[in-house]
Amino acid sequence: MVLKLYNTLTRKKEIFKSIKKGQVGIYTCGPTVYWYQHIGNLRSYIFADILKKVLIYNKYNVKQVMNVTDVGHLSSDSDVGEDKIEMAAKKEHKTAKEISDFYLKIFKQDFKKLNISEPEIWCKATEHIKEQIELIKKLEKKGFSYKTSDGIYFDTRRVKDYGKLAKLKIENLKAGARVKIWDKKNKTDFALWKFSEKLGERQQEWKSPWGVGFPGWHLECSAMSSKYLGEKFDIHTGGEDHIPVHHTNEIAQSESAFGKKPWVNYWVHGAFLIFEGKKMSKSSGKIATIEDLEKKGYSALDYRYFILTAHYKSQLNFSLKNLDNAKNSLRRLKNIISEIKDDKKINKKYLVDFEKAINNDLDMPNALAVLWRLVRDKTASGKIGAIKKMDEVFCLDLLKKEKIVIPVEVKKLIDEREDARNKKDWAKADFLRQKIRKLGFKIDDGSEEVKISKI
Ligand code: AMP
Ligand code: ZN
Question: What is the end-to-end Cα distance of the chain in Å, rounded?
Answer without folding.
Answer: 40
